[in-house]
Description:
Elements: H1 13-22, H2 36-48, H3 57-62
Amino acid sequence: xxxxxxxxxxxxxxxxxxxxxxxxxxxxxxxxxxxxxxxxxxxxxxxxxxxxxxxxxxxxxxxxxxxxxx
Length: 70
């Protein structure tokens, strides 16, 4: 099963939720917030990273094997 996140204008939320229900799909309007503790860890890592240890995103991606690439 796939999960899809939609951004819906406020005035269309009810319509979209009704449509999802009529299609027999599952919907959740819960927001999943990132805990402040996790945000603090990331901020600390950003501040303490050494520039010589950084590599471009494209290069980093080459070092990983993704299921979708298989």
